[in-house]
Amino acid sequence: MCKRLFLFPLFTISLLFPLCGAANQPTASAPYTEGRAYVTLPAPHQRYNGKGKVEVVEIFSYGCIHCAEFAPYAEKLRTSLPPGVVFKLLPAAFNQAWMPYARAYYAASQLGVAQKYHLKLFNEKLHQDFPLKHHPLNTLDQLADFYARQGVDRTRFMRIARSSQATKALKADLKLIEKWGVQATPTIVVDGKYRSDQISSYQQLIKLSRWLVKRELAPKHDR
Questions:
Q1: Most buried pick, 73, 84, 121, 155, via CB within 10 A?
Q2: Which of 47, 59, 1, 7 is nearest to 187 (CA)?
Q3: Helix (H, G, I), strand (E, B) or coil at 86
Q4: Regarding beta strands 54-60 and 85-91, do their DSSP bridges make them parallel or antiparallel, or are they unpaired?
């Protein structure tokens, strides 16, 4: 995971130093332990986008190497969610270096191309340092160039990315990220109620997300 303010590989840390203790161990009916694999957020719960379908929100950044590695897993999760559940992306601008990525995502979303080029952008970002690559993706201008190469109007993209509306969205999203207590990326929040926490692998994060979705969809007396 990429941690807020400082970048640490939390997946590696959790594998090397597993938590001890017999209390609150997983059971057949509840395979994930609250307070370890996930936390229940304090009420009142706040969803990303109001009422409607159950939300699975990934907090991510194009500047996060672990988000890039997780992206194919997240895509499988997105396409396998049951009816009544929607997958959303929330860009985290934890530092100044990540600000351009958040603004680029807002612009791409408004232009309707964010999902289409999501994995492609990650792929180019991962391989930008290869000798044959000449398209770095670190600044807003460079990100605009990326979308322009996909056929997106560059001028319009930059106008949206630099707009006051994008700034307003960025501030609102950061405020929500803080309310959810997100400290690292990638993190999954389900319906504004449950946040992934101490996860040892990307596959476990996917399985946890599906389990939390199932729990949220179940009648209250079955939870």
A1: 121
A2: 59
A3: strand
A4: parallel
